[in-house]
């Protein structure tokens, strides 16, 4: 059985994590498969948006506790580079990535979802960072990304209490941007992907780069980067197409992404 399934629909790639026996827990072998699948997507210039979801009742139940259990600090440090590398790869991918959280997203699973650009959830999704309850802390960016996404107070509470939240609470905290019935989750994800894909892809990618920079740049530097990216787009055909269509009163712009 393939543990990561990639399907292409138009310009969208759907990546389904498929290790149901452990609810998609991230073991070393599985992380390598996910990383390889991400490379496959990265190397396909025809893909404009990636959706990541899980099969069965979990998005990802977390890092594989059984695999981590016996390791010492040196071994886990080596092991962990794969997990953190995975999230950095997702976060820095040129194209937008949508996490369609279909069920449990705990620990490393929520950390992976937080590395995505957009998160949507099914009504039955449950999320949390249970690590302190396991005697450890997040190891793949959870303590860094959660406060940035939902603010320090709520993030500290979730991390220190190791408590789980349902999809409605995640929505109210701004951790996910939509909650839909399970059977409509992928439809919603594809609909968001479609909205993104009708725009100029050079602009979308520049926008992702600029928004990413906002996380760790001084406002002056971020605004300078934004201005540089904005200016560079004026040397593209897309800018003439998009603005030209507005001036001519045309709707349904078709960008050539060049
Ligand atoms: N690891 C290993 N196996 C897991 C697992 C996990 N995280 N989650 C579930 N499983 C396995 C179960 O052991 C069970 O296996 P069998 O007994 O059938 O062999 C099977 O999946 C089905 O699970 P359950 O029988 O427990 O299913 P339930 O529906 O009853 O419960 C559950 C679902 C998700 C509520 C429960 O399985 C659960 O609480 N799972 C653990 C959730 C958790 O604590 N996750 C956080 C793990 S710590 C790092 C990267 C990341 C991390 C750390 C470092 N580096 C890059 C540095 C992150 C740490 C974590 O994620």
TrEMBL record:
Any one biological process term the GO annotation gives: fatty acid beta-oxidation
Documented EC number(s): 4.2.1.150
Enzyme class, first EC level, given as a word: lyase
Swiss-Prot/TrEMBL keywords: Lyase
Pathway named in the protein's UniProt entry: Lipid metabolism; butanoate metabolism
One function term, GO molecular function aspect: 3-hydroxyacyl-CoA dehydratase activity
Pfam families: ECH_1
Source species, domain of life: Bacteria
Reaction(s) the record says it catalyses: a short-chain (3S)-3-hydroxyacyl-CoA = a short-chain (2E)-enoyl-CoA + H2O
Presence of keyword Transmembrane: no
InterPro entries recorded: ClpP/crotonase-like_dom_sf, Enoyl-CoA_hyd/isom_CS, Enoyl-CoA_hydra/iso, Enoyl-CoA_hydra_C
SUPFAM superfamilies the record matches: ClpP/crotonase (SSF52096)
Matching Gene3D superfamilies: 2-enoyl-CoA Hydratase, Chain A, domain 1, Lyase 2-enoyl-coa Hydratase, Chain A, domain 2
Family: Belongs to the enoyl-CoA hydratase/isomerase family.
Self-association state and partner proteins as the record states: Homotetramer.
Protein name per Swiss-Prot or TrEMBL: short-chain-enoyl-CoA hydratase
Organism: Candidatus Allocopromorpha excrementigallinarum
Organism lineage: Bacteria, Bacillati, Bacillota, Clostridia, Eubacteriales
């Amino acid at each position: 059985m393939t543990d990561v399934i990639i399907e292409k629909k138009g310009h969208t790639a759907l990546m389904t994590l498929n290790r149901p026996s452990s609810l998609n827990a991230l073991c070393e072998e599985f992380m390598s498969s996910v990383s390889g699948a991400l490379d496959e997507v990265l190397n396909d210039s025809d893909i404009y948006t990636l959706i990541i979801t899980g099969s069965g009742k979990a998005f990802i139940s977390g890092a594989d506790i059984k695999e981590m259990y016996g390791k010492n600090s040196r071994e886990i440090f080596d092991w962990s580079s794969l997990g953190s590398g995975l999230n950095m790869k997702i976060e820095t991918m040129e194209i937008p990535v949508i996490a369609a959280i279909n069920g449990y997203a705990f620990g490393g699973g929520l950390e992976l979802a937080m590395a995505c650009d957009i998160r949507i959830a099914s009504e039955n999704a449950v999320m949390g960072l249970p690590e302190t309850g396991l005697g450890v802390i997040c190891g793949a960016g959870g303590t860094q990304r959660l406060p940035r996404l939902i603010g320090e107070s709520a993030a500290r509470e979730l991390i220190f209490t190791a408590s789980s939240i349902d999809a409605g609470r995640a929505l109210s905290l701004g951790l996910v941007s939509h909650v839909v019935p399970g059977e409509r989750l992928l439809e919603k994800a594809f609909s968001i992907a479609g909205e993104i894909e009708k725009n100029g892809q050079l602009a979308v990618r520049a926008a992702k780069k600029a928004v990413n920079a906002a996380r760790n740049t001084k406002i002056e530097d971020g605004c300078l980067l934004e201005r540089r990216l904005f200016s560079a787009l004026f040397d593209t055909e897309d800018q003439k197409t998009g603005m030209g269509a507005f001036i001519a009163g045309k709707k349904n712009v078709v960008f050539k992404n060049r």
